[in-house]
Amino acid sequence: MTQPAPIQGDIASAIGHLRGATDARRIFVLGFRMGGGVAFNASADQSELAGVVGFYGRLSTRPGEEGTAPADRAAGTRAPVLGHFGGADPGIPESEVRAFETALTNAKVAHHIETYPGAPHSFFDRSFDWHKDACADAWRRVLGFMRTGRPATRA
Fold first, then answer.
1. Alpha-carbon distance 64 to 124, whole Å?
2. What distance in Å separates the CA atoms of residue 89 and residue 122, rounded to the nearest whole number?
3. What is the secondary structure of 7-72 as a DSSP string?
4. 53-67, pLDDT tens digit by residue?
5. What gap in Å lies between CA 112 and CA 106, rounded to an integer?
6. How far apart are CA 29 and CA 12, in angstroms?
7. What is the pTM of this model?
8. DSSP secondary structure string, 81-115?
9. Cβ within 8 Å of residue 22, ≥6 positions away
């Protein structure tokens, strides 16, 4: 099911499992495309996360889903946020990325938002060679964030 509440319930179950079955000290949610938006919202819905990483997650609200966009939920966001967006993504305009970033800043959430000029939607899902500079930078940022807990850190 792709409704927000059941998805967040699955994430909560996964966190509970990891806490009981491993010695994990820090848990992150990382998502691509729809999962990027899910990851951003997990920062508001899950209290035990060390951070979230979203790659080109949807930031706008669809009809009937008012209040579910990550920018709408920023005030309740707890875990640090790392976001990656393509500068040539027509589905996630720069204005929405900046609104999300502003909402996180206003909510005093540790975050880093990176927009890669010329990169399309799902740039990281494509052949590495097509957007290798953006992919390499994004992955260094993910690893640095997960290593340190600071979203602006590169490995």
1. 30
2. 8
3. HHHHHHHHHHHHHHHS--S--EEEEETHHHHHHHHHHHH-TT-SEEEEES---SPPTT-TT-STTT
4. 999 988 887 777 777
5. 14
6. 11
7. 0.92
8. EEEEEETT-TTS-HHHHHHHHHHHHHTT--EEEEE
9. none
pLDDT digit string, tens, across residues 119-153: 999 999 877 678 899 999 999 999 999 999 999 99
**Are 116 and 123 spatial neighbours (Cβ–Cβ below 8 Å)?**
yes
Amino acid code (one letter) for 132:
K
Q: Is 137 exposed, middle or buried (0-12, 13-18, 19+ CB in 10 A)?
A: middle
For the 4-148 domain, the top CATH level (class) is alpha beta
d(CA 104, CA 34): 19
Supply 36's token pair: 């990027």
Domain map of the chain by residue range? 4-148
